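User: Please fill in residues for this 182-position structure.
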C-alpha cells in the first residue's frame, strides 16, 4: 500500500513537473526578437580650442581655486570617429560635471548619436564616473534607440591623445552593448 502510494505521488510529481515545464515559456518564445551583443570602438574628440566642441556652462565660486575644478559643468558636442583622425560617424552630445574634490573625476551623461555607417540613426546612452587619471575607466550603457533599443552594457575608455597645454583630447571608447536588433 505504502509502495503504491509513493509511486502514484511520484507519478503525480512527474506529471506536475511536465505541466509546469510546458507552461514556462522558453527564452526563444518569450522574446519576439533575439538579443545580440555588439562591440564598437570609436574615438571621442574633446576640442577645447578653435572650433570648440566643449563649453563650460556653469561653475561654483570656488571652482577656480579647486585643484580638481570641482563644480564645473561642461556641455559637449564631440565628434566620434572610427579611427583616430578619420571621418566623423557621429557625435557625443551631453554633459560632464567635475564631481570629485580630491581627484580629477567627472560624472558624464552622454548620448552617442550615429549619423553614418551601419548604426546611422541609432544612439547609445552612456552614464557614469570617469576618473581621468586611471589608465582604463568604465561607465555604463543605460539605454539606446534604433538598433540599440533596450541596450545595456558598458564602455571602457582609454586616453589616446592629450594636449596638456590646450586640454584637447582624443579618447578611445570600447562599447560593449547587448540590444534587440529587429
Ligand atoms: C565648426 O564645427 C561644426 C561641427 O562640429 C561645423 O558644422 C562648422 O562648420 C565648424 N565651423 C568652422 C568655422 O569650422
Ligand atoms: C574662473 O576663471 C576664469 C578664467 O580665468 C574666469 O573667466 C572666471 O570668471 C573665473 N570664475 C570665477 C567664479 O571667479
Ligand atoms: C591624430 O591627431 C593627433 C592630434 O591632432 C596627432 O597628434 C596625431 O599625430 C594624429 N595621428 C595620426 C595617425 O595622424
Ligand atoms: C543617415 O540617415 C539619414 C536619415 O535617415 C539620411 O538622411 C542620411 O543620408 C544617412 N547618411 C548616410 C551616410 O547613410
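Assistant: Residues filled in for all 182 positions:
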Amino acid at each position: 500500500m505504502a509502495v503504491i502510494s509513493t509511486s502514484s505521488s511520484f507519478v503525480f510529481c512527474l506529471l506536475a513537473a511536465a505541466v509546469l515545464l510546458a507552461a514556462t515559456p522558453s527564452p526563444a518564445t518569450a522574446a519576439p526578437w533575439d538579443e545580440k551583443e555588439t562591440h564598437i570602438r570609436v574615438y571621442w574628440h574633446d576640442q577645447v580650442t578653435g572650433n570648440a566642441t566643449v563649453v563650460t556652462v556653469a561653475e561654483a565660486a570656488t571652482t577656480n581655486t579647486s585643484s580638481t575644478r570641482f563644480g564645473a559643468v561642461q556641455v559637449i558636442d564631440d565628434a566620434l570617429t572610427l579611427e583616430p583622425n578619420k571621418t566623423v560617424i557621429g557625435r557625443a552630445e551631453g554633459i560632464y560635471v567635475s564631481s570629485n574634490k580630491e581627484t580629477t573625476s567627472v560624472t558624464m551623461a552622454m548620448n552617442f548619436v550615429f549619423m553614418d555607417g551601419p548604426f546611422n540613426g541609432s544612439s547609445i546612452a552612456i552614464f557614469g564616473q570617469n576618473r581621468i587619471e586611471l589608465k582604463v575607466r568604465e561607465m555604463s550603457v543605460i539605454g539606446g534607440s534604433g538598433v540599440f533599443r533596450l541596450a545595456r552594457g558598458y564602455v571602457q575608455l582609454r586616453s589616446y591623445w592629450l594636449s596638456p597645454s590646450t586640454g584637447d583630447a582624443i579618447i578611445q571608447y570600447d562599447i560593449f552593448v547587448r540590444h534587440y536588433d529587429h
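For context: The two ends are 58 Å apart (CA to CA).
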